[in-house]
Amino acid sequence: MDSLVEKLSGLWPRSGLLASQFARALLARAALLAVVAPALAWGRSPMEAFAVVALAAVCIVVGDRYLARTRPRMRERARDGLVVSLLVAGSVHLTWLHSLVAPGVSPFVLPLPVAAMVATMLVGPPAGMFVAAASVGAGVLQGVLAGPAVFAALLTDVAAIASMSSLKDRARLVTGTSTVIAVMAVAAAASAALSGEQVNRVVSEMGLGAVGGVVTVVAALGLLAVFEALFGVTSDVRLLELANPSAPLMRRLMLEAPGTYTHAILTGNLAEAAAQAIGADPLLARVGAYYHDVGKLVRPAFFVENQTGCANPHANTSPSLSALIITAHVREGAALAEQHHLPPEVVDIIRQHHGTSVVAYFYQKAAASGDPVVEADFRYSGELPSSREAAIVMLADAAEAAVRAMTKPTPPRIEECVRRVVESKLADHQLDRADLTFADMERIVEVYTRMLSGLYHPRIEYPSMMHERGCHAGTRDEPSRS
Ligand SMILES: [Fe+2]
Ligand SMILES: [Fe+2]
Question: Of the ligands numbered here, which is closest to the C-alpha atom of 267?
Fold first, then answer.
């Protein structure tokens, strides 16, 4: 295989990585054509077979160009190209099997939109549209779809793509899958009615369409899990599962570190709104923020938000040891997340949420003691945020903790505080790898200020409350900044 790749690379005028990538892409397209060609050319004269294979080749080239425009990153494009190719090949073979085994049976009993649904959930709506066009085209060429059924099949695909794109919550998944089932039933009935069938046949076709819809939904969710595991792609459905409070790590956080759980939910709300404002992925930002401090489960009491009453285990620990304990939550969080098979995008957010910033409280405490202090010993040993979502979580986390520690938060002071957080991360080069523009950062400051002002606005203090507040005086500023 490699030698063939090398030979093909030699035919291409460029050398090195690009040439090798070109050759691999060419081989992948040729393999797809070879897989779908028998299903399309079966039982045809040589001239017809040549025509359908030529049409399939054009379709593959057009689809490739289409994907290239929507997925500019080469690595993602190769992976998504493979996902789309497998779905198209599976879909073409499904209709082929139907044409061979049950030529007279309604095509709507087949899970027709399943490939378009899975492509939408894994790669996005443009890929879903391409898969839909390719699979309906194949159905027409194989004689499985004809007349009104072509329109009906396209309609079910469009409904499936629209229902599965940008799933925000579980309710949308339920309505989306119900829509697919309903549209398939109606499309099957309408297709039969327009073909001049009797009423009882129309009704039975509707039933078959509904059955096809249920099979579609079940097959799509099953295939989604298989593709996620095989290719390491994270779908919105998986992220929605993780955002559920009953997800194992969320549940543990709620029971064992309630303060951190509340902080994570607040950070998640901030991150989601900021991602929406700058056109990043709001669901990934929310889920990443929910799990960013999961490493605190190892020693919850060492983090101020979990210290009920006035107990503080850092009181008897040296600043350098305290800093070690605090910074460990990043590494421990990433390990815990990997153990629970969280998606790599979420693990990256955990690993990157403090970057390489300084644990300021303990660094200053150590410096104040008069002993020689090395700043590097008080820095997190994580990675810098490499995505917009990771940067958003880093800023939401720091802004939430900083504003929470303010004694008299007013909207202008909150804005000043949030701005200072963003500027300090920028000056400390923590955002060097994240693809954020200054306009994005300005929007993030606006969103965080508005939301945190709503959350931490000054409250009317009753005399009894003022007395109670004294218990927490002096503990608020402790090492929670995480
Ligand atoms: Fe945090
Ligand atoms: Fe943290």
Answer: 1
Residue 481 in domain: no
354: CA distance to ligand 2 center in Å? 6
Same domain (yes/no): 309, 185: no
User: Going by C-beta distance under 8 Å and a sequence separation of 6 or more, which residues neighbour residue 237?
Assistant: 121, 167, 173, 221, 224
202 and 318 in a common domain: no
**Residues 85 and 54 placed together within one structural domain of the fold:** yes
pLDDT by position in tens, the chain (length 482)? 444 444 544 554 545 555 666 777 778 788 888 888 888 888 888 888 888 888 888 888 887 777 777 665 555 667 788 888 889 989 999 988 988 888 777 888 888 889 999 999 888 888 899 899 989 998 898 888 888 889 989 999 999 999 888 676 667 778 888 888 999 899 989 988 988 888 888 999 899 889 988 998 899 889 988 988 888 788 888 899 999 999 999 999 999 999 999 999 999 999 999 999 999 999 999 999 999 999 999 999 899 888 876 678 887 888 888 899 999 999 999 999 999 999 999 999 999 999 999 988 888 888 887 778 888 888 998 899 999 999 999 999 999 999 988 888 889 999 999 999 999 999 999 999 998 999 999 999 999 999 999 988 766 555 544 444 333 333 333 444 45
Residue 344 CA to ligand 2 center (angstroms) comes to 18
In a domain? residue 479: no
Instruction: State in Å: Cα 396 to ligand 1 middle.
Output: 9
Of 481, 115, 440, the closest CA to residue 279 belongs to 440
Domain of 157 in residue numbering reads as 2-233
Least distant ligand from the CA of 380 = 2
- Are 221 and 251 in a shared domain? no
pTM above 0.90, yes or no: no
Ligand that comes closest to the CA of residue 399: 1
Could you tell me if residue 482 is inside a domain? no
The ligand that comes nearest to the alpha carbon of residue 329 is 2
Q: Ligand 2 centroid to 467 CA: how many Å?
A: 31
* Closest alpha carbon to 126 in 75, 179, 72: 72
